[in-house]
Amino acid sequence: MSKKTPASLASFALIECTERIPCDPCVRACPRGAITKKSVTSPPELDSKKCTGCGQCIALCPGLAIFVVKANYSKDQALVMLPYEMLPLPSVGEKVQILDINGNAVGEGRVVNVRKDRNFTNIVSLSVRKDVAQSIRSFRVIK
């Protein structure tokens, strides 16, 4: 599992891969070479100086273990890009309850973008409070 990245960076990936299985699509997905592995079964390591937060790694991670935070989305909001494999997909503008790794509600956000992919995992981008951005792992639509 990668260490928390300083919030002073404009955009960065958070990698929470704990499985020691043969897997490396995130390494191949990164156009900047920011993700490396010592071996095919070791956890991925992120070079935060190379990571631009493009999110290419998110859709290819079979473990749904990569998230991107864009800390400077606005004055008081961050943008969090999450893998999302549930249907129906949320719509841009929808209000959501944001959840931490344990499924606890930590606030509300708004869907900013939905990147649909037929072959890989969809990516949902949420506008959220900066102070909770690094802890968000999922969400549910507020009806």
Layout of helices and strands:
Elements: E1 11-15, H1 25-29, E2 35-36, E3 45-46, H2 56-60, E4 66-70, E5 77-84, E6 95-99, E7 105-115, E8 122-129, E9 138-141
Antiparallel strand pairs: 1-4, 2-3, 4-5, 5-8, 6-7, 6-9, 7-8
Descriptive notes:
- This protein has one domain (11-141).
- It contains 2 helices and 9 strands, in the order E-H-E-E-H-E-E-E-E-E-E.
- It has helices spanning 25-29, 56-60, and strands at residues 11-15, 35-36, 45-46, 66-70, 77-84, 95-99, 105-115, 122-129, 138-141.
- The strands form 2 sheets. A 7-stranded antiparallel beta sheet has the order 1-4-5-8-7-6-9. Strands 2-3 form a two-stranded antiparallel ribbon.
- It is globular, with a radius of gyration of 14 Å.
- It starts with 10 loop residues before the first strand and ends with a strand.
What's the oligomerization state? single chain
Gross geometry: globular
- Can you count the beta strands? 9
Radius of gyration: 14 Å
Structural class: mainly beta
Let me know the largest β-sheet: 7 strands, antiparallel
Number of helices: 2
* Euclidean distance between termini CA atoms: 34 Å
